[in-house]
Amino acid sequence: MLLPASNKRRTFAARYFAHSKSLVMGEQSQSPGQPPCSYRLGPVLKAGWLKKQRSIMKNWQQCWFVLHWDQLFYYKDKDETKPQGFISLQGMQVNQLLLGPEDVGKHLFEISPNAVEREKMPANPEVLLLMASSQRDMEDWVQAIRRVIWAPFGGGVFGQHLEDTVHLEQKYGPRLAPLLVEQCVDFIREHGLTEEGLFRMPGQANLVRDLQDSFDCGEKPLFDSTTDVHTVASLLKLYLRELPEPVVPFARGLWSWLNK
């Protein structure tokens, strides 16, 4: 049975006005005169404006953030070439934050050391608190960062190219489709073929999001007899909808025929 992933999200008020530090590890580890060269790190996976909480005053600084594979750089301005700092995402985790009534309208998420890294650190490990301009923007950033963090461990499946996911999962055994797809299809075949409104009626939105988080975090949640088949169908639809390219690729098949 799938356990709720609500423990992956934390309450804002309880953690950040009591004790909070800004995680700027790039600034701490950077050698003098040798700023990180973001242009050598491959393509930009995501870029955009975010507000970053300062470490001492606890006020907010707007920065231009650029995600290059497992490095998150931030700049004073979009046109700057030298970053103010960077965060290495190895050994980190990213979580959305649930807000109290006094924080309505804020879209906050944190980047912090994972459980393994926290054991090597002091009692209050540093975290990076970020604010996006909208709920959708926050979710896009969390998804992009989580995908980077968990890709080496078989996670980050949503939004990945189909062939990349299959290639990665083949390291753990023969596979013709992603594990998520096989698991959803097998469950729907067993429990949903006689269900009215399958793929039309929505599943439980919170549970769909929890399942997505679990797969993106490298977990392999199992469905059982208590799992709602509409939720599983919604999860499969979400996965297919977020593919960078449809199952029938743009370059051939139906799309090529329509463009003739």
UniProtKB/TrEMBL annotation:
Q: Name one GO biological process term.
A: regulation of small GTPase mediated signal transduction
The record ties this protein, via Gene3D superfamilies, to: Pleckstrin-homology domain (PH domain)/Phosphotyrosine-binding domain (PTB), Rho GTPase activation protein
Q: Which residues form a coiled coil?
A: none
Q: Name one GO cellular component term.
A: focal adhesion
Q: Which stretches make up the Rho-GAP domain?
A: 166-260
Domain named PH is located at: 43-150
Q: Does the keyword Metal-binding apply?
A: no
Kindly state which keywords UniProt assigns to this record, in alphabetical order: GTPase activation
Q: Which SMART domains match?
A: PH, RhoGAP
Q: Write down the PANTHER family for this protein, in alphabetical order.
A: RHO GTPASE-ACTIVATING PROTEIN 22, SPERMATHECAL PHYSIOLOGY VARIANT
**Protein name per the record:** Rho GTPase activating protein 22
Organism for this UniProt entry:
Phyllostomus discolor
Its taxonomic path starts at: Eukaryota, Metazoa, Chordata, Craniata, Vertebrata
